[in-house]
Amino acid sequence: MKRRTTATQTEILTLLEAANTALSHEMVQSELGANMDRATIYRVLNRFCEDGRVHRIVGDDGKQYFALCLNCGELRESHTHNHFHFRCLECGKVECLKHDIKVPLPDGYTSERFNGFISGRCKNCS
Amino acid sequence: MKRRTTATQTEILTLLEAANTALSHEMVQSELGANMDRATIYRVLNRFCEDGRVHRIVGDDGKQYFALCLNCGELRESHTHNHFHFRCLECGKVECLKHDIKVPLPDGYTSERFNGFISGRCKNCS
DNA sequence: AATATTATTGCAACAAAGTCGCAATAATAT
DNA sequence: ATATTATTGCGACTTTGTTGCAATAATATT
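Predict the joint structure of the above. Result:
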């Protein structure tokens, strides 16, 4: 499946770059207008994940967030996104935290996906 | 709102104790039979959370899991559940990991909820 | 430049997770 | 034994996310 460049995809990508935070489908929708199809947004974001351009975080609200994650650029190839994400309960922003976290697993356990999430109040909102 | 003891509640509590892992609504349902009402299960579990008997974790599958968390008994009063949870992608078990994790937040940020989640393969399934 | 190929889109339908209102039931208090 | 009210069960609903299928449009082919 060779990828094609489309308007929708570039718009979403540009938005993610500009945002500098992790965005939910909802945020993308409301930024890019209601004329953009919901299913398409999901498909574009999922495609970005598959291609490793974006990583997916599941929030403690059960929703999916997507981020380019500029903080962990060097690690992107290796697909280890072992950093936390912070969601401000006030303004809703979801950002990558810088530190990489190591969690000791019991013997014989192997990790496939890391999902660290903290919510609270960001600097602006506290 | 004074609490009352009911059959449903004790059943669920007993199940959580026996399980020694975190359970989703679905797991509770399938263990305790289809005759038990879905909404009731959710309400019971939410009540347990409010009462501090159980804590809620949101999985990287977007689902809620509930655990007595025997590992962190001493901490229960303080309501700080800063430990990770591990879900085996094979057998589906969700367990509390022992270690408490400290995540450094940027200046001015305050934490309200911690949700650490790792999925992979447990000892039995790898 | 015109055509063929097929990735992507838009729409509708769907599934699953979770919540809520309301009347019926059943634990506790009187 | 009765009154009070927390809990249950049912149904309806919302939100998130996915999927099938026909239409559209980006690339490859000639």
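The helical segments of chain A are 7-19, 25-32, 38-50.
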